[in-house]
Amino acid sequence: MTIDGPAGAGKSTVAKLLAQRLGFLYLDTGALYRAVAWKVRADGVDPADRDAVAALLPSTTIAMEYRPERPRVSVDGRDVSEEIRTEEISRMASIVSAIPSVREWLLPVQRRIGAAGGIVAEGRDLGTRVFPAAGVKFFLEADMDVRAGRRHRELTGTDRPAALDQTRQEIVNRDERDRSRDLAPLVPAADATVVDTSTLTVEQVIERLMAVIAAKL
């Protein structure tokens, strides 16, 4: 099962709760891109230097261990689960995720994780490219102001409390990168159910998704 969508649409929260409701594993594919970004920063590489980033990949090992709330992620044997959740790494992950070689390198990693089935995977190109044969696909979206407000609240109390206008601009920039990249741009899969979460509570979103799942499975 896949849940795609832009930043602030509610993917992570909904995917975690849906996985718990169904007794499935939760696959946070964004954590994999954050792990690559962490390696890029650790090695002092410019995330916009595509050749330099690509050169890091063959010597990089990323592993993910599942936990109910948040997966444990390690890079080259080091647990970076908390370190990859900073806003700096988030911004870097947005940049490296647009690099085709990074997306190609992580493709088999994601597919190996999903091969056993019984997962709720959330990301940006899962229904279109990573798991095109998934039995149930969703695409969550929301009004830009709503998404900015949600993201701003998430940042409160973290390493960098951002101004709302700044948060909104960062989401606009992220959308542009995600929707305009040549490889696997952010678009709903043709067979995905699109849900606008702007005026819905998390529980209402879950109930809508569960209704679709019940009808398809």
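That was protein one. Protein two is written in the same sequence-then-structure order:
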Amino acid sequence: MAKSKEAMVDISASPRIHTYDRVYVWQLPVRNYHWINAICMVLLIPTGYIIGNPQAVFSANEPYQQYWFGIVRFTHFASAFVFFFNLLFRVYWAFVGNRFSRWNNYVLLKKEQWRKLIEVVTVDILQLRLTRVMGRGHNPLAALSYFALFLLSIFQVVTGFALYAGMSTWWLPKLFTWVVPLMGGDMAVRQWHHLAMWGFIIFTIFHVYIVFYHDYVEGRGTTSAMISGWEFERKDDV
């Protein structure tokens, strides 16, 4: 009997012994992008929150002893530039990478992708069914959420550079000076920039939960795959 390339996942199944094939899914540039992006978020979110709501710590000290806020700002700005260039690289890799990292996996243009999206929602989210077809790489729901995160990242880059342009002499931030008057002034841009930050926080919470959930249900090494690049495809039941 020919080996099927896809297997059915039963979320109610008790643990059993299976035979697996190793499948190389995530290339090194994709894994590097993921972890650089994660580090940038860890730095950008708390520093951005402090910038938006600065705390009066060490208020009894001399001014020269209070440069901590300058360090916070520098960390935020430096991380933002790394985040931006890392994002540009990921856009480039979406056109030259393997089939799992290509852009057409994240933009759902085919009817089959939407059918699988409904299937994932029915099984993994609503749990109205117990089984679904398990493919390699991202499922359509994950792909759609990553595309939404990409759009949110673009928004943060645009609004962030717009806010930074007034204190920078470099040409790159100056390209975004038009954003401030378009959005109604600095205060409005800051509010939208801050609001989008919470989108990243909410995404991160769900992302970590879903990754571990799929790692437990599917048993394919979803968590370790973003370190090693390898996922495991079930061949047969023993």
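The domain at 15-237 is CATH 1.20.950.20 (Fumarate Reductase Cytochrome B subunit). Keep this in mind for the problem set.
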